[in-house]
Write a structure and sequence with these properties.
Elements (H helix, E strand, L loop, with lengths): L1 H9 L5 E3 L21 E5 L4 H4 L2 H4 L1 E5 L16 H4 L14 E5 L7 H12 L4 E7 H8 L6 E5 L9 H10 L2 E4 L7 H17 L3 E3 L1 H7 L10 E3 L3 H8 L7 H16 L1
Parallel strand pairs: 1-2, 2-3, 4-5, 4-7, 5-6, 7-8, 8-9
Helix pairs in contact: 7-8, 8-9
Length: 263
């Protein structure tokens, strides 16, 4: 790629970069090694911060509308995760930046819990345990050597798994429950019991996907910090309310539901 960038820069042709010139960090404007020197950079919706400080490479910066609504900015931005990320010292040890337990997966679904655990590692968590039915956990083990899988008894989560998971709940800083669980009756029973285990341990809990659907069957206020991540359909299952089409009205309904669920 570096050789191709050098070749492009030697050409006398008029150069147009689409979105951002190759080699320019669109967030910071930093140049990793070398970058295309464009005459014009055509980017979309809004000018990216990095492009505004890399004029040597962007040339004339043009911003074009591609039909994205302004409301989209309420859903996408620089990322709240950066606000919660701790600076790492050179003397940091594994575990100083969090241990997470992800409980999910079933005979049918393996990708969802794996994506959650990998995303957690990518955003700074030191250790991610992923608990899933044995065959599913074995398949997930092949996704990445960074994942520590806990292989549970059965084709889906059930009450027999509670004892095996209790020690991991005690060892971690937070728990994610739900991705890929499936909707088996035994799994719903497990969710009710496991939520109490997490609550008794005083650990923060994130309820997602099928975990939310199971929780909706016995919904109650929890005595621990809890995050719910429903899409619109799951929101209706969880609250018996349908989200309005208008974004501002939608925000208001979600805020009221959060207050109710949080107590």
């Amino acid at each position: 790629m570096s050789q191709l960038v050098e070749y492009i820069n030697t050409l006398k042709a008029f150069k147009i970069a689409v979105d951002a010139p190759t080699g320019v960090d669109s967030d910071t404007g930093e140049i990793k090694s070398n970058a295309v020197r464009a005459d014009v950079t055509l980017t979309f919706h809004k000018a990216k911060r990095g492009l505004q400080s890399a004029t040597k490479y962007t040339g004339e910066l043009l911003v074009k509308n591609i039909g994205l609504p302004k409301e989209l900015e309420k859903y996408a931005g620089p990322g709240d995760v950066f606000l919660a990320t701790k600076a790492r010292s050179k003397r940091a040890h594994k575990g100083d930046f969090g241990r997470l337990l992800v409980v999910g997966g079933s005979e049918v679904f393996s990708g969802a819990p794996a994506l959650v655990a990998l995303a957690a590692l990518r955003t700074g968590v030191d250790i991610a345990y992923l608990a899933a039915p044995a065959k599913t956990a074995q398949a997930i083990s092949s996704f990445s050597p960074d994942l520590i899988t806990v292989k549970l008894e059965g084709k889906h989560l059930n009450m027999n798994n509670i004892t095996a998971l209790t020690q991991f709940v005690e060892a971690v800083d937070a728990v994610v429950l739900g991705p890929g669980l499936g909707l088996h009756a035994e799994t719903a029973e497990f969710v009710r019991a496991f939520v109490s285990v997490v609550e008794n341990a005083g650990k923060p809990l994130l309820l997602d996907a099928d975990g939310l659907k199971a929780y909706a069957q016995f919904r109650r206020q929890l005595k621990i910090p809890v995050v719910f991540t429903p899409h619109s359909g799951e929101f209706t299952i969880l609250t018996s309310k349908k989200l309005p089409e208008n974004v501002e009205d939608c925000i208001s309904v979600v805020e009221k539901a959060a207050e109710t669920l949080a107590g």
